[in-house]
Amino acid sequence: MQHIPTLFITHSPLGGRGVFVGEDLPAGSIIEVCPVIIISEVDKKKIHETFLHDYYFLWGTDEKRAAIALGYGSLYNHSYTPNAQFVAIEEDESIVIESILPIEAGSEITINYNGDSADKSPLWFNKTKM
């Protein structure tokens, strides 16, 4: 796993915990490379009955599997106006978090859970603040 050394977790105004950065980041910065634990299609169905339901990424071109990102990967909060994006790298079993906008020191890093930073589709769960 590799990540920017100034990443930190703290309370988020979006709810719960969030990932923040302690230094200015230009757009196009690799924030973190997270190894993932791949979850089979059968186990993906089971995960919906657990607390981990809110922490997985869809995995594979058919999205029938899931992945839990290690490091801070599963703790980035959602935004429809994100400052970062995630890229799944199947052959490396990893997810790369990279900035798509400049991010100021002290700011929360957010991603669009729909995968495309411009996708405004409703999420599969109900969030009061986004």
For the report, how would you describe the main beta sheet? Answer: 6 strands, antiparallel
Radius of gyration: 14 Å
The total tally of domains equals 1
Average pLDDT, all residues: 89
CATH architecture: Beta Complex
Give the overall shape: globular
- List the helices and strands in order: EEEEHEEEEEE
Report the sheet-strand fraction: 35-45%
Helix content: under 10%
CATH superfamily: SET domain
Assembly state of the chains shown = single chain
What's the β-strand tally? 10
Give the helix tally. 1
Write structural notes for this entry:
- By secondary structure, the chain is mostly beta strands.
- It has a single domain, classed as Beta-clip-like (Beta Complex), CATH 2.170.270.
- Helix content is 5%, strand content 38%.
- It has 1 helix and 10 strands.
- The strands form 2 sheets. Strands 1, 4, 5, 6, 8 and 9 form a 6-stranded antiparallel beta sheet that branches.
- Strand 8 (84-89) and strand 9 (94-99) form a beta hairpin.
- The protein is globular.
- The two termini are 28 Å apart.
- The mean pLDDT is 89.
Concise synopsis of the structure shown:
This protein is mostly beta strands and 130 residues long.
Keywords:
130 residues, mainly beta, Beta-clip-like, 6-stranded antiparallel beta sheet, 4-stranded mixed beta sheet, 10 strands, globular
Topology:
Layout: E1 2-3, E2 7-11, E3 17-21, E4 30-39, H1 41-47, E5 56-59, E6 65-69, E7 77-78, E8 84-89, E9 94-99, E10 108-111
Parallel strand pairs: 7-10
Antiparallel strand pairs: 1-4, 2-3, 3-10, 4-6, 4-9, 5-6, 8-9
